[in-house]
Amino acid sequence: xxxxxxxxxxxxxxxxxxxxxxxxxxxxxxxxxxxxxxxxxxxxxxxxxxxxxxxxxxxxxxxxxxxxxxxxxxxxxxxxxxxxxxxxxxxxxxxxxxxxxxxxxxxxxxxxxxxxxxxxxxxxxxxxxxxxxxxxxxxxxxxxxxxxxxxxxxxxxxxxxxxxxxxxxxxxxxxxxxxxxxxxxxxxxxxxxxxxxxxxxxxxxxxxxxxxxxxxxxxxxxxxxxxxxxxxxxxxxxxxxxxxxxxxxxxxxxxxxxxxxxxxxxxxxxxxxxxxxxxxxxxxxxxxxxxxxxxxxxxxxxxxxxxxxxxxxxxxxxxxxxxxxxxxxxxxxxxxxxxxxxxxxxxxx
Length: 349
What we know:
The chain is mainly beta. The protein has a single domain (16-277), classed as Methylamine Dehydrogenase, Chain H. It contains two helices and 31 strands. A five-stranded antiparallel beta sheet has the order 19-18-15-14-20, with no helix packed on it. A four-stranded antiparallel beta sheet has the order 3-2-1-31, with no helix packed on it. A four-stranded antiparallel beta sheet has the order 6-7-8-9, with no helix packed on it. It is globular, with a radius of gyration of 20 Å. Residues 1-6 have low confidence and may be disordered.
C-alpha cells in the first residue's frame, strides 16, 4: 500500500492481550499474564492469576479456558473453565471458586460481576469488594438433555449500573421457554417484564450493545458483532456474522467504524479480503485504529482443512492492514484467544 511496515508500526498504539504459560514451580498449574506489545516487542506487564489445569479440562477438547474477562478498571478477573471458574483480584489468589462454568460480565463501575452457572442454571451477582454473592434467579425448569446440555442466559448491564436485564434461553422437555426479557433493579430487587419496545432497545441502543457489559447471541443483534473504544465514543461493527456451520463456512463480512451520533465508515469491504470469519477486538479512542481477529481456511499438520486465526490491525484513514504479531516474517508473540466472541486483544491506555 506504499507505506513501510516499520513506519506503520511506530504509529500503531500499544496492544494488550492475555498470555498463558506453565507455572515454573507448580506442576499442573498455569499462569495467566497481561502482556503488552509495542513496536514489535512483547513484554509481560502483569500477572493476573494462577490456575489448576485440571479445572480447565474439557472431556472432548482437553485443556480449555472458555472465558477470561477483566473488570473495566483491571482490578478483578473471572476465568471460566470447563469444570471450574475462579474470581479474584488481579495478582492475588481467587476469593471465589465455582465448580461450574460461570459466564459473567462486570458492571460499569467494576464493583459487581453478573453471570450464570451453566449446569445449575442460576443467575448470580458477585460483589467483588465485599466478596459476597447474591442469587438473582434459580432454575425452576428442567432442560431437555437431548437438546441442550447447559442452561443459557442472554444478559447485560444498564449503563448506570443500577439494573440488569436478562432472558432465559432454555429448551425444556415441553419445548423452549417463552422469549421474555426482564429488568431487575439491584437495590430494590424489583423485577419487571419488558415490553416489545423495551426489548428491542436492548439490541439497538448504542450503550446497551457494548459487549463489555452484555452476554448475548449475535443473532439477537442482527447477526452483527461489535467492539467499543474504552470511552464508548467509537465502535467497530462487523456484519454479517454467523456461527460456523456447513451453511455458513464463510461470512465475507464488512467492517465499519462508527462514531456515536456521527458517521459510519466502511473500512474493509467484503470483496477486498479473503477472510472467512472476522471478530472485532477493539477500536482506539481516537477512532484511527481497529483490531480484528481474522480467520482463513488453511491446512493443519494432519492435512485437515481448518480455520486458522491471526490478529490484524487496520489504520482507518489509509485502510492499511498490519499483522502486529508477525515482524519480518517471524512471530514476535504467540497468537492467543479464548472465547471467539470475547475480545482477547485491546489497545493499551
